[in-house]
Amino acid sequence: MNAHAGFVPHHALVSAPSAAPARWMLVLHGIFGSGANWRTFIRRLAEAQAAEGAPPAAARPWGFILVDLRAHGMSQSPPAPHTIAAAAEDLLRLGDRLGLDIRGVMGHSFGGKVALAYLERRPTGIERGFILDADPSARPAGESGSESPGVLAMLRAIPQPIPSREAFLEAVHAAGFSRGIADWLAMNVRREGDGFRIRLDLDILNELLTDYFARDLWHVLEDPPAPAGPGVEERRIHVVLGGRSASISPASRDRFEALAARAPWLSVHVLPRAGHWLHVDDPEGLFDVMRAAL
């Protein structure tokens, strides 16, 4: 029996219209999100490779795989256990199913930790990794940031069915969250029968968040990557942090910088104007970093 037989997450392929990608990159969203959160940004990145005057690397263009991680978006009813490791194993099965040459992974927030777990399971063959405002540390679950259990508790408290999408936005805002967070969470609200419902399994998300906070994955960044195989570039990992983000502790920021000073495989980029949502707060800055690194 194939060890990778089982649950495969929903996904969408994105590439420039005229491109025939030679290598592919997994794109992993944050908790309470879905692959669609990154569609506009990733489409622009894909099309930039085909633009006139693009660097020579465009001769080997990247395609991108927008993944709905387990219990998010259209990847519903996954089997237990609901852990970071299980989400990474889902990606291995997805790679087997697609049969594409997956050479990269990028992950934001919760997805960044899943990306690290995936890199741990792919010691060779991955050329590029992007860890976007994700803290590899184990830390107390009550700390601030988009992964805060306060978001989960707020969603549990909203009575369903919800009369309208506007009523959902008002409830989130009334709970003390910004309009930006409300709009982001509203992507999970769908009309069903007698009203609107939150299309998230909050019990599974609670298990995923519990494991997210318990897991320490610094070793994935700190251990030297395995030698590249034939036809594979040396692995490079790019960490991109929001200068105003509350999701990365000062100690972790210092650890990233110290590691980058001694590890040639790792680069750290800070977007001073950005908070946690890099692609919303500073899409141009993030685009420039990724475009140059591909």
UniProtKB/TrEMBL annotation:
UniProt entry keywords in alphabetical sequence: Hydrolase
Molecular function, one GO term: hydrolase activity
Keyword Nucleus assigned: no
Name of the molecule in the record: Alpha/beta hydrolase
Keyword Glycoprotein among record annotations: no
Organism, as annotated: Sorangium atrum
Similarity comment text for this entry: Belongs to the peptidase S33 family.
InterPro entries: AB_hydrolase_1, AB_hydrolase_fold, Serine_prot/Carboxylest_S33
